[in-house]
Specification:
alpha+beta, L,D-transpeptidase catalytic domain-like, 3 domains, 13 helices, rod-shaped
């Protein structure tokens, strides 16, 4: 082998060695890892939940990728350091920490949101059933439907893993439920007022005493219990469940409010078959003098509009036209019970309608439960 051939062989060996020893300036697996970090951050909703951290990561990532594309020196010796690679590795570490923090944060948020939504669903079911039991749905109006939609919306967002929006919907539903409980307490709080209950008890006792003294029939209706009781000679002779107006639990204020009036009344007319569309009916003298006094006072104070009327035609009757009965705020019995009551009274029979007869009445207990649940939401 000539000297020239030897030189060429040595040069080839050295060149091959050099090429074999060179490495890429930026390892492909590092770039792939950073791309994966970026995807993880997006999956964890970092743009919404951690905008500052994600924005910082993206800005650095975009800048470093631009440097990679502009860097002409794509290979280096293994022992050479690469500032670009070091910056990429620092960015990877930062992104990895952010992913870990967001994952922990999301796990905690998921647990908190799940508990909140589940508790709201349970509260909504309980409150709805209790509201139905005291005829409060009409009073609340569309609020019940709106709250139900908010709770369902919160559940939907939770299932989509959008915990932030789920919590926003849950907070709105929470506020709505508390507002409903507050409204019911405001409108029906008199059922839990001991002085008001004592007054109602006094009215009922006076009516029963009148029945005993005059050896006559008298009727007492408890709205909270939805019960009508007939007394004769001061003794209870029958008791029947009743239905009230669609806003029956409220204190009657004006015509068309659907409330059943409270106070002392008398039977002014007995209407038998063919005389009423309600099977049989006992007409009452609503509005009486006390009703008119309260109505006039409320009108003068502006609590009732100037165009409102006081109403009338309140009866105790059967169930041939249930829809109209609920519209007028009358007291309705099933027909067999109405027939028995009809035979037991006469024109002039006292009828006392009260909100409740005990402090532990159904409405007061419901309001107490709603107040307790409101604090648990």
């Amino acid at each position: 082998m000539t000297l020239d051939q030897v030189h060429r062989s040595l040069a080839a060996i050295i060149c091959s060695f050099c090429l074999a020893g060179c490495v890429q300036a930026v390892p492909p697996d590092l770039l792939a890892a950073l791309e994966a970090i970026d995807q993880d951050l997006i999956a964890l909703r970092a743009p919404e939940s951690a905008p500052e951290e994600y924005g910082r990561f993206v800005r650095q990532w975009v800048s470093l990728k631009a440097r990679i594309e502009l860097d002409d020196d794509l290979i280096r010796w293994p022992w050479e350091t690469s500032d670009l690679e070091n910056e990429l590795r620092r960015l990877y570490s930062m992104g990895e920490r952010t992913v870990s923090q967001l994952h922990e944060r999301q796990t905690a948020q998921q647990r908190t949101t799940q508990e909140k939504v589940a508790r709201l669903e349970e509260q909504l079911h309980a409150i709805t059933s209790r509201v139905e039991s005291i005829d409060g749905r009409i009073l609340l109006g569309e609020k019940v439907v709106q709250t139900d939609l908010l709770v369902k919306q919160a559940r939907s967002f939770f299932e989509q893993k959008d915990f932030h929006r789920a919590m926003l919907a849950a907070d709105k539903a929470d506020h709505a439920l508390k507002a409903q409980a507050s409204l019911l307490s405001q409108e029906l709080g008199r059922y839990a007022d001991e002085s008001r209950v004592a007054y109602w008890q006094s009215l009922a006792k006076q009516t029963i005493d009148w029945s005993r003294i005059h050896q006559s029939a008298a009727i007492v209706v408890s709205k909270a219990d939805r019960e009508l009781t007939l007394y004769k000679n001061g003794r209870k002779v029958l008791s029947y469940p009743v239905r009230l107006g669609f806003n029956g639990m409220l204190e009657k204020r004006y015509q068309g409010d659907g409330a059943t009036p409270e106070g002392r009344y008398h039977v002014t007319d007995k209407r038998g078959l063919g005389q009423t569309q309600f099977y049989r009916a006992l007409a009452l003298d609503y509005p009486n003098a006390e009703d008119r006094r309260k109505f006039d006072l409320a009108k003068r104070s502006g609590r009732i509009g100037s165009t409102r009327g006081i109403g009338g035609q309140i009866e105790i009757h059967g169930a041939d036209n249930e829809l109209l009965a609920r519209t007028l705020g009358c007291i309705m019995l099933d027909n067999p019970n109405m027939a028995a009551l009809y035979e037991g009274v006469s024109v002039g029979t006292p009828v006392t309608i009260v909100g409740a007869l005990t402090k532990e009445n159904a409405v007061a207990l419901t309001l107490s439960e709603l107040t307790q649940r409101r604090g648990e939401i």
